[in-house]
Amino acid sequence: MTYNLAACAEMIFQDLPFVDRVKEISAAGFLVEIWDWSNKDLPALAATGATFSSMTGYLEGDLITEDGASRLLETAALSLEQAKVIDSPRLNLHGTGLGEGGLPVKPTYSVIDADWVKAVDTLTRMADLAAKHNRVFTLENLNNAVDHPGVPFAKAADTLELVQRVDHPNLRLNLDLYHAQIGEGNLTELVAKCFDWIGEIQVADVPGRAQPGSGEIFYPRIAKELKHLNYRGVVAMEAFATGNSHEALTEFRNAFTV
Predict the structure, then answer these.
(1) Residue 179 maps to which CATH number?
(2) Is residue 253 assigned to a domain?
């Protein structure tokens, strides 16, 4: 493989303390991803010796309101400092802040032209901030139908357009294929269309958001496309395990070994 595999410590080995989850993922040969850094002992995570791929890049805020953008930038600056503790190269963003159960703190069910203009301005400022820290923000597509109703700019088509409009090396896509399958489908062509703008790819199967091989998506075909495109980034399993977490990681690795 020309790319690296990672796994999200929030969703597997859930019977273990968080530091032990990180150790298990790293010992299995994967990079590690985390979400909210504010509720974790980052020095303890760093001491595991794991290599971290991504973490959430903000605590609060949104792309399209004046107060929300200010708060997003404030908490992004804090996140960039914390990213140094675990040396996370990428910090993940969403169209708006997410609360309990992944629901948006301030739901937005439609966007207008002015929202697009404000979002591009906010993301440009975020990218400039990331450049000062030699990090990259990744903007993740989500889905409105199942997991995140009310999140603006949820589709991959939306996040791609925003990243293209900003056109900054420190802002890239986190192309989440689980969310894209629910929201858009046509995954192989989507990967090719987004390829030049991808900072990372995340995967889970549909339905159930479990490991590749547990649902309807034929991920070996995606892996074949990534090989064809000579993708050299990260593919991360952001998925639950249907059973044993080690077995889920093995299924993930098998799906993406071409």
Answers:
(1) 3.20.20.150
(2) no
* Dist CA 121 CA 239 (whole Å): 32
Q: Decide if 235 is inside a domain.
A: yes
Work out the percent of the chain whose per-residue pLDDT is above 70: 100
In a domain, 56, yes or no: yes
Let me know: does 119 contact 153? Beta carbons within 8 Å: yes
Residue type, 159: T
Taking the mean position of all CA atoms in its chain, how far away is CA 31? 14
Query: What are the b/e assignments for 214-235, b being 16+ CB within 10 Å?
Result: bbebebeebbebbeeeebebbb
pLDDT for 74 equals 98
Q: Which tens digit of pLDDT belongs to each residue from 62-98?
A: 999 999 999 999 999 999 999 999 999 999 999 999 9
187 CB neighbour count, 10 Å cutoff: 21
Report CA Rg, the chain. 17
What sign does the dihedral 114-119-120-122 (CA atoms) show?
Answer: positive
Residue identified by tokens 């790293």 is 26
Give residue 230's region: left, alpha or beta (phi > 0; psi -120 to 50).
left
Residues 93, 62: Cα–Cα separation, whole Å: 9
For residue 197, give its domain range. 4-210+222-244
Question: How many distinct structural domains can be found in the chain?
Answer: 1
**Cα 68 from Cα 185, distance rounded (Å):** 31
- Can you tell me which residue has the tokens 């504010």? 38
250 lies in some domain: no
Say how far apart CA 242 and CA 209 lie, in whole Å: 9
- Give the DSSP H/E element, type plus range, for residue 172: strand 171-176
Helix (H) and strand (E) counts in the chain: 9, 8
